[in-house]
Design brief:
Aminopeptidase, 8-stranded mixed sheet, 6 helices, Peptidase_M28, Peptidase M28 domain-containing protein, M28_fam
């Protein structure tokens, strides 16, 4: 076993039992970091990018974090019930987890949601945006990973994580600070940590703004760029171990 401990956070919805899976490292440290990804899919499809890529990141991070001397406790959390019909409800696994942290006054430095990190395109016109003017800033090629944060008041964890992510020089990365009303900004598990005032960000290939296989049966392994996805995971790992 790679980690210090593995546990299940079980809860019931409409008579059925669901669970978050929590894998912890550096448990001797009181302040913790949460790196999370949902493991459910939308409907009867593979969900290769959404969100097998995020789960792959958690599994690989578990391997990489073993025997590391960490300044913080790191909880890798695989969430259930992120997808519809439970999205934006208190039945989301990430809501249950974030509420637990808040209710128990657990010292959380910050959280990063790993949401779709495997789809990249170098062709012009392969990247869309919720606001068209953003293409002037970020370009129209889907060749970067995005670090999505609050427009203001993101907190020191978010700034430090983004700095280390970019300084790792693993992959082209863009920071996207935006208010919640901009479409897609809170379309993942980090939204529940924001609800409980924890610093949080999302790491994403921008989902349906780039990957037109989103929530379709065409979201398959063959569509992914594994090499660049690996670089994203490496950058997450380097960010975790260098956080101050």
């Amino acid at each position: 076993m790679y980690s210090d401990s593995v546990g299940f956070q079980k809860y019931k919805v409409e008579g059925n039992e669901y669970k978050n899976i929590i894998c912890s490292f550096g448990t001797e440290n009181s302040k913790r970091i949460v790196i999370g990804a949902h493991y459910d899919v939308c409907g009867d499809q593979q969900g290769a990018d959404d969100n097998a890529t995020g789960v792959t990141a958690l599994l690989e991070l578990a391997r990489m974090l073993q025997n590391q001397k960490l300044q913080y406790r790191v909880d890798l959390v695989a969430y259930t019930l992120e997808e519809p019909p439970y999205f934006r409800t208190e039945n989301m696994g990430s809501y249950v987890h974030a509420k637990y942290l808040k209710d128990n006054n657990i010292d959380v430095y910050g959280m990063a949601s790993v949401e779709m990190i495997g789809y990249f395109k170098d062709e012009k016109g392969s990247q869309d945006f919720p606001i068209s003017v953003l293409s002037w800033i970020y370009g129209n090629k889907g060749d970067f990973i995005t670090l999505v944060k609050k427009f203001s008041g993101a907190g020191p964890f978010v700034g430090n994580f983004i700095d280390h992510f970019k300084e790792s020089n693993q992959i082209k990365a863009e920071t996207f600070p935006a208010p919640k009303f901009v479409g897609g900004v809170d379309y993942s598990d980090h939204l529940n940590y924001w609800k409980f005032d924890f610093p949080a960000l999302m790491i994403t290939d921008t989902s349906f703004f780039r990957n037109k296989n989103y929530h379709k049966t065409t979201d398959t392994l063959e569509t992914l760029d594994i090499k660049r996805m690996t670089k994203v995971i490496d950058a997450i790992f380097l960010s975790i171990i260098h956080l101050k």
